[in-house]
Amino acid sequence: MKKKFALVAMAAVLALSTVACSSGGDSGGSGSSSSGSSSSGDVANKDKPLVWFNRQPSNSSTGELDMTALNFNENTYYVGFDANQGAELQGTMVKDYIEANIDSIDRNGDGVIGYVLAIGDIGHNDSIARTRGVRKALGTGVDKDGDINSDPIGTNTDGSATAVQDGSIEVGGKTYVVRELASQEMKNSAGATWDAATAGNAIGTWSSSFGDQIDVVVSNNDGMGMSMFNAWSKDNEVPTFGYDANNDAVAAIAEGYGGTISQHADVQAYLTLRVIRNALDGVDIDTGIGTADEVGNVLSDDVYVYNEEERSYYALNVAVTAENYTDFTDSTKVYEPVSAQLDESEHPTKSVWLDIYNASDNFLSSTYQPLLQNYDDLLNLNVEYIGGDGQTESNITNRLGNPSQYDAFAINMVKTDNAASYTSILSQ
Ligand code: BGC
Fold first, then answer.
1. Can you tell me which atom of ligand 1 is nearest the CA of 127?
2. What CATH number has the domain spanning 84-262?
3. If you measure from the C-alpha of residue 372 to the centroid of ligand 1, how many angstroms do you get, rounded to a whole number?
4. What are the residue ranges spanned by the domains of the chain?
5. Which has the least CB within 10 A, 73, 363, 399, 401?
6. Is the model's pLDDT at 138 over the cut of 70?
7. Per-residue pLDDT at 428 exceeds 80
């Protein structure tokens, strides 16, 4: 990448100096990152920068990465976050809360700490990791093919389910049983996953049949978590835990929401557009990421990791609880170390096609997209945002009718197996 840029730059300098030699040897262009080169018309769609984000191209049953999609061309990347590190944090956050509040948490005093779990999408790596993280921390996980089983169990009030087991927590010399009373994939009848309304209905059903056994509510994300909190747990003072650190969830911590995890969306949204910017500028992909750019934008390695083999950038997660939530009240604020505006003459405006798989996904619409909209200005990218229905890939791909109009693409798939529905359009 670096090499290629150096060659292109050298050619540009040569060309410039032949034209400019009569005007007194102006060497201003050399070493600068402005290429001024690519007008989208010359570049084939299959060679344009492509960033997958939030839903990593992978097999939805096995989780195996789709390396064909991740290596579509030399400017293809994935941007997401470290799902396992975040899942572990979420599990530990719940466990710590139970231990710290052991005197009051067992609402019916039966010695069993019961929790219910809202599952987002059984075929989504993030969702699977979070289900496993909670089961691991609480000791309720059972092995399946060498990993913790992440299947939903339906109801399990008597502890007889086979996809989970009863765990135990010991505090102050006393041992408590921990039981997953119920879990369900929150998918609506039209097929949309991570569905908040479905979660609100589920807590209604669960609480009316075994409400006094529910001591903790856990959710794979804040959209579903807040729906359950508002429908039931807030009034019943049952701690509820989510994921994403959306504004409404962080604010609810003051009203008894147990906690959430920030997946550093401010860093992910930046990375999503920054790798596109770098690829279009023809500069080293690390510019403004691990290496400061000319205006000082740079990320420290405690907020992201890059896995070269997987062509993937992963932001790191942070737990948000009653102790620190006041630092997280605006989830749409750009991350300060990467908030400097790029100069338009060096980084000319380019156009990007970007889709959000489900326009009503809480996290993507209330946190991620507003962040992208803040960064697109700073990076001089003119982004067209497409919102999908969360159910059908073709609802989105139909709107990629004229890829030649754009310089780059950022894609959030409905289903992680479906990368080829997009790459086939770009290869035509
Ligand atoms: C978020 C969820 C969101 C999902 C969409 C996850 O990373 O935590 O809130 O629904 O992405 O793909």
1. 6
2. 3.40.50.2300
3. 15
4. 5-79+265-314+331-426, 84-262
5. 401
6. yes
7. yes
pLDDT above 70: percentage of residues in the chain: 90
Q: Based on the number of CB atoms within 10 Å of its own CB, is 292 exposed (0-12), middle (13-18) or buried (19 or more)?
A: middle
Can you give the pTM of this predicted structure?
A: 0.89
Q: Is the pLDDT of residue 8 over 50?
A: no
Q: How many CB atoms lie within 10 A of CB 17?
A: 14
Q: What type of residue sits at position 355?
A: D
Average pLDDT over residues 333-351: 98
Q: Which helix (H) or strand (E) segment is 8 a member of?
A: helix 2-20
CB 370 near ligand 1, within 6 Å: no
Q: Where are the alpha helices (DSSP H) in 25-170?
A: 67-70, 83-100, 102-105, 125-138
Of 116, 108, 111, 112, the C-alpha closest to 241 is: 116
Cα–Cα distance, 204 to 321 (Å, whole number): 25
Mean pLDDT, the chain, rounded, equals 92
Atom of ligand 1 nearest to the CA of 55: 12
Q: What are φ and ψ of residue 265, in 5° steps?
A: -60, -30
